[in-house]
Amino acid sequence: MSQSLPQSLPQLLPQLLDQSRHPSLRLVLASNNAKKLSELQSLLVGLPLVIVAQGSLGIAEAEEPHHSFIENALAKARHAARACGSAAVADDSGLCLAALGGAPGVISAHFAGNLEPMAGEDREALRRRQDAANNAALLDRLQGVVDRRGHFISTLVAIRHADDPEPLVAVGRWPGEILQAPRGDQGFGYDPLMFIPDLGATVAELGAEQKNQHSHRARSAALLRAMLVDAWHLGR
């Protein structure tokens, strides 16, 4: 005895067939920064991707011994891909000021030195304390410096597997200038010090939606999105 199909199934068939042709790809983010994960998920929304942080899979953070953003991003991506056995993406980002020879550069996250966790301090609390120390160290270095121009840089690297010979590399830059004192309570890192003249605000004064329209990571993610479609055929 034959059974009729549910009335809604014919309408769902095109979607189901499309999902079978384009199953979601798990992309492991080589970072434990919750805000960075949230930003990247928002910036790549619409692609058949499931982006998860490496920490949720028990993957430790990789060493970052190199002097350039691209080398560190690639090292982190390969580390995560090898540990999880799947595709991975890494972002190495920071702040560069010409007056300081490109510093803080690749040590932006620990410009004030690596702080040790205090008793009972969780990861996010330690990150906030590290951010405050880094901001103070930067202001100290810039005392008496007239040229306070700089830019945020984001270098995103995506690989299909640990030994991928053809990594996707996308670089975005966001120019601004460093204020004399922090302003705003959004974002993280040097956001309270980075003033964007075109927007008349520091990055820490921008809402998440506005930041995701203009930021260095938004610019690199837009380039990466195009590469994921063209080279990896995602979303086609």
Q: Helical residue percent?
A: 25-40%
Query: What percent of residues are in strands?
Result: 15-25%
Question: How far apart lie the N and C ends?
Answer: 39 Å
* Total DSSP helices: 6
Rounded to an integer, what's the Rg over CA atoms? Answer: 20 Å
The 3D shape can be described as globular
Helix-strand makeup class? alpha/beta
SSE succession: HEHEHEHEEEEHH
Largest sheet, spatial ordering of strands: 2-1-3-4-5-6-7
* Mean pLDDT over all positions: 89
Number of E-type strands: 7
Q: What low-confidence regions span 5 or more consecutive residues with pLDDT below 50? A: 1-20
Biggest sheet overview = 7 strands, mixed
Brief sketch in words of this structure:
With 236 residues, this protein is α/β, with parallel strands linked by helices.
Report on this structure.
With 236 residues, the protein is an alpha/beta fold. Helices cover 34% and strands 20% of the residues. It is built from six helices and seven strands. The protein has helices spanning 9-21, 34-43, 69-84, 123-141, 208-214, 216-230, and strands spanning 25-29, 49-53, 88-97, 149-159, 168-178, 194-196, 201-202. It has a seven-stranded mixed beta sheet with strand order 2-1-3-4-5-6-7. Helix 5 crosses helix 6 (216-230). The longest helix has 19 residues, at 123-141. It is globular and about 55 Å long. The model is unreliable at 1-20 (pLDDT under 50).
Write the layout of secondary structure elements.
Elements: H1 9-21, E1 25-29, H2 34-43, E2 49-53, H3 69-84, E3 88-97, H4 123-141, E4 149-159, E5 168-178, E6 194-196, E7 201-202, H5 208-214, H6 216-230
Parallel strand pairs: 1-2, 1-3
Antiparallel strand pairs: 3-4, 4-5, 5-6, 6-7
Helix pairs in contact: 5-6
